[in-house]
C-alpha cells in the first residue's frame, strides 16, 4: 500500500498542473471569504484604514479587469516562450530537460501565482454592484487584488531569474 501511495505522490509531484490547480482552488476560496468579509464590514472613514481601496464600483471593475487581463497575458506569454525555448533545446540535449522543467516547484508556483491571481480577480469582479443595483464595492478584496498583483510581479522576476540561472 505504501508503494502505491509513494507512486501516486511521485506522479502528482511530476504533474505540472497539480500545484497550480491547488493554488487556483485556494484563490477561489480566498475570494469568497474576502467578499464575505467586505459584506460584513461597514465601510467607515477610519484613518487607520486609509491604505484600503476607496474608489467607486467602476474604478474597482476597471482595476480588477486590468489585473486579470495582465495576469493571464503574463502567464500565457511567459510559458509559451519558455516551452518553445525548452523544446528547441531538448531536441539537441534530450527530452530529460523538459521533464526537469515540468517537475521544478518554482515553475509550478510561478504559473500557479499568475493563474490564481487571475482567478481571484474574476471572482471578486463578479461581486461588484453599481449604483443602479444595490451598490457594493468590495474594498478589502480589491486591495488584496492589488497586493496579489505586486506579489505576482515579484514572482515574475523570480521566474526569469530562476530560468536564467
Describe this structure as you would to a colleague.
By secondary structure, the chain is an all-alpha fold. The protein is built from 6 helices and no strands. It is elongated. The mean pLDDT is 86. Helix 2 runs parallel beside helix 5, helix 3 (57-93) runs parallel beside helix 6 and helix 5 (105-125) packs antiparallel against helix 6 (139-164). It has one domain (2-39, 56-164). Helices cover 78% and strands 0% of the residues. The protein has helices spanning 2-14, 18-40, 57-93, 96-103, 105-125, 139-164.
Helix content: over 70%
Number of helices: 6
> How would the global form be characterised?
elongated
Mean pLDDT: 86
Main beta-sheet strand count, sense and barrel state: none
Keywords for this structure?
6 helices, 165 residues, mainly alpha
Question: How would you summarize this macromolecular structure in one to three sentences?
Answer:
The chain is mainly α and 165 residues long.
Write the layout of secondary structure elements.
Elements: H1 2-14, H2 18-40, H3 57-93, H4 96-103, H5 105-125, H6 139-164
Helix pairs in contact: 2-5, 3-4, 3-5, 3-6, 5-6
Amino acid at each position: 500500500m505504501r508503494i502505491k501511495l509513494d507512486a501516486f505522490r511521485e506522479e502528482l509531484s511530476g504533474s505540472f498542473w497539480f500545484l497550480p490547480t491547488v493554488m487556483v482552488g485556494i484563490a477561489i476560496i480566498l475570494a469568497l471569504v474576502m467578499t464575505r468579509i467586505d459584506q460584513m464590514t461597514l465601510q467607515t472613514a477610519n484613518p487607520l484604514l486609509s491604505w484600503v481601496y476607496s474608489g467607486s464600483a467602476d474604478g474597482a471593475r476597471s482595476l480588477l479587469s486590468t489585473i486579470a487581463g495582465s495576469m493571464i497575458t503574463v502567464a500565457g506569454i511567459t510559458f509559451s516562450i519558455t516551452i518553445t525555448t525548452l523544446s528547441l533545446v531538448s531536441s539537441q540535449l534530450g527530452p530529460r530537460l523538459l521533464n526537469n522543467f515540468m517537475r521544478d516547484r518554482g515553475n509550478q508556483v510561478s504559473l500557479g501565482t499568475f493563474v490564481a491571481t487571475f482567478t481571484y480577480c474574476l471572482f471578486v469582479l463578479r461581486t461588484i454592484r453599481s449604483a443602479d443595483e444595490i451598490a457594493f464595492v468590495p474594498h478589502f478584496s480589491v486591495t488584496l487584488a492589488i497586493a496579489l498583483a505586486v506579489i505576482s510581479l515579484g514572482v515574475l522576476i523570480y521566474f526569469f531569474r530562476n530560468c536564467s540561472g
